[in-house]
Amino acid sequence: MKRIAILGSTGSIGQSALAVVDAHADRVEVVGLAAGSNADLLAAQAARYRPRIVAMATGAAIDRLTAIGLERGVAIGGTGRDGLVAVASHPDADVVLCASSGTDALEAVLAAIECGKTIALANKEVLVMAGGIVTDAAARRGVAIVPVDSEHNAIHQCLHGRGARDIRRLILTASGGPFRGRSAAELERVTADAALQHPTWRMGRKITIDSATLMNKGLEVIEAHWLFGVRAEQIEVVVHPQSVVHSMVELIDGSILAQLGVTDMRLPIQYAFSYPERWPAPLAALDLARAGRLEFHAPDTAAFPCLRLAYRALEAARSLPVVLNAANEIAVARFLDGRIGFTAIPQVIERAMDAHAPVEVPTIATVRNVDAAARAHAQDIARGLELKV
Ligand code: NDP
Ligand code: MG
Question: What is the mean pLDDT of the chain?
């Protein structure tokens, strides 16, 4: 039995992970669940999966949870970052799936690593903020970080244990999002509703907007650097609208290995749970004849500057990726509120990066300080770019 704790169990990835548990009840057991504010769904999940421990983001959410009622034997691990740490470091958990949105799970991921647990990582923001700290801790503790993000999961499958020495290039595929092919001028007027219509994947709101700006791919470039130990110039992005090839690895002899599959996150989640084994999956088979043509194009970084900004942050390293991530979260939230336009998102990020003098970020405390300052500054920049109604 693999005993799993899920951070973000009420979200898109979290619910897919519980579907994987349902399909493999003889192999996987849920021992911990954490969520943000959806107490009704967490209560239903707790009743069904009988975890040892649960946590929620706020005291109000915990109050609602206790009002609904929890089974005897389900402990409440607390709120906020402490609650996430309690669930992630519960002694009965072997694998911690980090699938909460935002960055509150950073301390929890580190706590799980210190306890020697395998990390199934969906949340890319954690590696963008503190990739060096997290991967150093995992190496020191001999803990595996198995990526759930479909591109990195594909690369993990293709590499099959090979290290950075064997890699010439990683090729990350991007669907291109709902606005693929639009010019910068056309993007001025797009709405949040249109940006939330992703052509191939159903995901949470923040990552769906990141997919529309291509910042998602930018964050994934930084994620790939930390997971696979390759330099920025070894990571290439190609737009592949069909989302059939989930990513590729070019080895030093020029051979390119690809992983193909249906667009269903249950597959990479199950791989992260089963690794190093393989389990059968109750998913539809990929119909290649129906997929038809597979296309690959260079990304348009003039219309979608976020990808360029992410490369810039990775190349400058130190604290600049923290600023990129913080400013992006603020800008995306403001865009979703209807306060700023779509093309203001990269403007907020670029101005925040331009204003920042990079510093070393050797500890979580320094990461959190840079993050807080960058968020405050990005709020000011976003206020200056607000749409006139
Ligand atoms: P969702 O918005 O659908 O879900 C987010 C989850 O996190 C919810 O369960 C939410 O709880 C919970 N949450 C939010 N804040 C906190 C907090 N402070 N403490 C505890 N739980 C919290 O997002 P996704 O599932 O789409 O994405 C989750 C992560 O996985 C992101 O980092 C994303 O980049 C990554 N990812 C997602 C993919 C996808 O296909 N969806 C693909 C690759 C990566 P509640 O709803 O109860 O408030
Ligand atoms: Mg991805």
Answer: 97
Quick check: 16 and 265 in contact, CB under 8 A? yes
Helical H segments across 148-214, by residue range: 150-159, 184-187, 192-195, 205-213
Strands 28-35 and 53-56: parallel
Phi first, then psi, for residue 121 (nearest 5°) are -110, 110
Query: Best of 13, 20, 219 to mutate for ligand 1, by most ligand atoms within 8 A of CB?
Result: 13
118-121 and 145-147 strand pairing = parallel
For residue 96, the SS3 value is strand
**Which residues have beta carbons under 5 A from ligand 2 (an ion)?**
149-151
pLDDT of residue 199: 87
The tokens describing 66, both together, are 């206790």
Residue ranges of domains in the chain, CATH in brackets: 2-122 (3.40.50.720), 153-384 (1.10.1740.10)
Mean per-residue pLDDT, 35-56: 98
Residues with CB under 6 A from ligand 1: 8-14, 34-38, 57, 84, 99-102, 104, 122-125, 149, 201, 203-204, 207, 265
φ and ψ at residue 212, rounded to 5 degrees: -70, -35
Tell me what pLDDT residue 222 has. Answer: 98
CB 117 within 8 A of CB 95: yes
* pLDDT over threshold 80, residue 60: yes
CB 34 within 8 A of CB 54: yes
Cα(352)–Cα(349) distance, rounded to whole angstroms? 5
For residue 389, pLDDT over 90 is answered with: no
Identity of residue 25? A
- Compute the distance from residue 320 Cα to the ligand 2 centre, in Å: 21
Structure tokens given for 7: 């951070």
